[in-house]
Amino acid sequence: MRRYLLITFLCSIAFSITARASEFKGNKGTADSIEVTSDRLDVYNETREAVFTGNVRATREGIRLDCEVLHLFLDKKTQKVNKLIAEKNVKIFWQDRQATCSEATYFLSKDMIIMVGNVVITRGKEMLSADKVIFDMKSNHQVVEGSKKSRVKIKVQTDKETGILKWGH
Q1: Which residues of the chain have pLDDT under 50?
Q2: CATH of domain 5-155
Q3: pTM
């Protein structure tokens, strides 16, 4: 059972893509693979960065990430992806949940996701909105922050179990 679907999804992107641009291949989106489609892919060997742009869609086993730009950064020593950044009109769909934000960054070494810019997470009638949401998977701690312009807002069901901040089953 996956504990954190979003983390699993982002990790699968990271470990499915190796250091060489020629190995950036999509597949059927099975449990051990990821399919990434976009209008364009640029690979910058000097900075160890791959950038997918235009109608980016990454899918894996029922989880979907849509955005306009997806950056993949490789560690210089290990040649593994150590950071992912999804930008512009970011949408994440999994189970009965959806998250939208301006930018989502996943730091693999820290096992942390930071979503910023008009973050809205919904699950049925439940809703969470904030300026910034930090998911620290190592400590199983979430921080939800507002801004001077907008405060944190959450709406949960009181007649059944809430799950707005749960990422797994």
Answers
A1: 1-32, 167-169
A2: 2.60.450.10
A3: 0.72
